[in-house]
Automatic annotation (TrEMBL):
Belongs to the TACO1 family. YeeN subfamily. The gene is yeeI. It holds the Pfam family TACO1_YebC_N. NCBIfam families: PRK00110.1 (NF001030), PRK12378.1 (NF009044), YebC/PmpR family DNA-binding transcriptional regulator (TIGR01033). HAMAP family: Transcrip_reg_TACO1, Transcrip_reg_TACO1_YeeN. The keyword Transcription applies. It comes from Paraliobacillus quinghaiensis. Residues 3-74 form the TACO1/YebC-like N-terminal domain. It is found in: Cytoplasm. This is Probable transcriptional regulatory protein GCM10011351_02030.
Length: 239
């Protein structure tokens, strides 16, 4: 699973270069999560997860506070969570998760992104079955062996634990996300390189030359769309 972690790092690094856009997207996600339950992360697991992700992207406190305060107010904005699936060049597959207040606009924008960048949309289920929902948590400060021992003692199951570039990466079932983090926090680990619920491809493909360039452009165009939250793919991106 090592290259999968690198793909997540590369995606995150790309997004970090567009901080104002990322902050705006997180503001929307935080607002929606806070509206779905109590505006308190200790009482609202969805909000707690979004805030943990926001920390790894260095979202400022005032952005978070403003979104939560907005959720407490009387004016309600309605958003739909929609998933689109499609194909890129030479066997590549993509999943696009969106959060939108205008379904027609989002569908048109996502379709145009695929059509203009060498891809094509698929029907629901045409791609997602080749991916697994996975919690990925990465941090520094302990070895993979020590981390595994801690989690076993706490009776927390994980799929895999690796160590790359002094970062320990834990892959677990989505419902174990908070349990893993709680074990780590009890050990004094509160800063995470990555804390994501992601979709990992069961099998990666490798693209080269123009195919990889085309896929990267497609991902960038999708990421730039206002309503897109996450883009997942099955490509082992080469440096």
């Amino acid at each position: 699973m090592g290259r999968k972690w690198n793909n997540i790092k590369e995606k995150k690094a790309s997004k970090d270069a567009n901080t104002s856009r990322i902050y705006a997207k997180f503001g929307r996600e935080i607002y929606v999560a806070a509206r779905q339950g109590e505006p308190d992360p200790e009482l609202n697991q969805s909000l707690k997860f979004v805030l943990e992700r926001a920390k790894t992207y260095n979202v400022p406190k005032h952005i978070i506070d403003r979104a939560i305060e907005k959720a407490k107010g009387g004016l309600e904005e309605n958003y739909d969570e929609l998933r689109y699936e499609g194909f890129g060049p030479n066997g590549s597959m993509l999943i696009v998760d969106t959060l939108t207040n205008n379904v027609n606009r989002t569908a048109a924008d996502v379709r145009a992104a695929f059509n203009k960048n060498g891809g094509n949309m698929g029907v629901n289920g045409s791609v997602a079955y080749m991916f697994d929902a996975t919690a990925v948590i990465g941090f520094e400060g302990k070895s993979a062996d020590d981390t595994l021992e801690l989690l076993m003692e706490a009776d927390v199951d994980v799929r895999d634990i690796l160590e790359e570039d002094n970062v320990v990466i834990i892959y677990a079932e989505p419902d174990q996300f908070h349990a893993v983090q709680e074990v780590l926090k009890q050990e004094g680990i509160t800063e995470f390189k990555v804390a994501e619920l992601t979709m990992l491809a069961q099998n990666d493909v490798v693209l080269s030359g123009e195919d990889q360039e085309q896929l990267e452009k497609l991902i960038d165009v999708l990421d730039d769309l206002e309503d897109v939250r996450q883009v997942y793919h099955n490509v082992d991106l080469q440096d």
